[in-house]
TrEMBL record:
This is ATP-binding cassette domain-containing protein. It is a peripheral membrane protein. Pfam families: ABC_tran (PF00005), DrrA1-3_C (PF13732). It is found in: Cell membrane.
Amino acid sequence: MSHARGLVQTFQTKEGRKKTEVRAVDGVDLDVAEGEVVGFLGPNGAGKTTTLRMLTTLLRPTEGTATVAGYDVVKDSEQVRRSIGYVSQAGGAFSGARAGDEVVDHGMLYGMKGAEAERRGKELFTQLDLDGLWTRMPKNMSGGQRRRLDIVMGLIHEPSLVFLDEPTTGLDPQARANLWEHIADLRRRRGATVFLTTHYLDEADALSDRIIIIDHGTIVAADTADNLKAQVAGDLVDLEVADAELVQAAAQRLDSIAEAPRHGLQGVEIEGNHVRGRVQRAGKAVPGLLRDLHDADIDLESIEVHRPTLDDVFLTLTGRSLRDAADATPAGTPGTATKEN
Ligand SMILES: Nc1ncnc2c1ncn2[C@@H]1O[C@H](COP(=O)(O)OP(=O)(O)OP(=O)(O)O)[C@@H](O)[C@H]1O
């Protein structure tokens, strides 16, 4: 339904008298199928918003092509705009009118009749838990309510494809969780295709059918969260060996089935009585390991298996932790950038 090939966006910036070129997006290919929820994940400054602005026709690509909802973003920009909903990072600027009037005006901008926009707006208010707020001024709403109002505005003309730029940034954890439900609902109830940017790992993981990871303007991975985790990082196996003298022997056994050390993977590590290493698909590898340890009379106090996180995926692909990379998170965003699920 939407495809991009070789998208590039460069900006000219001035530092003092020196002009430099920033390649904010550097050759992005992406495909979004109908009815999918795609999470576009990357650290601050990776190029997420710039890509989104090109896909939503707000920024003309420096190079490359994109079709969105079947229309070319440059040649058929008008049709693209009519087919999509876009909720920007900053949210809409509200005029000081009542929320319901803003929504109806917005629908009429898209060519809807007033009565139709009102009916649809009220339906969306109910779906997004905004009942009773139709006549409230947006400035008197909570952050979470205002963000949901942004989403009503983005959906008023019934787009089949919705772009959400960091929909939960700036919200408290409860409001975030609440908005996640509404986003999941968009697809469930309306069959909408959703493309959302985020730098929250848990958000991408919880919401997306497929995750596209961008770093320094290039796509570094695109797959389901499960496949990304399985292909790249492997599961972490943590053995606690009962007898300190057998720790080395246990480490050798784990090493024989562990992933080779490479970017982001350290090989087998020993810490006290603990031996840790990453293996592909622990569910398959661990029973054999346990038999092996048993045959060698190596007793364990405990064994733990941790599924990899999206942060492990990012670390393996880029050599950096997404959490560190996201530490430049602007002030006022919730401290959940570091939360894992
Ligand atoms: N108008 C502009 N002029 C110059 N540089 C820009 C402009 N817009 C974006 N950039 C630069 O392009 C790069 C990508 O920015 P972009 O906003 O797309 O990143 P992002 O992944 O959306 O980040 P965030 O998560 O912080 O929103 C950054 O280095 C940014 O400073």
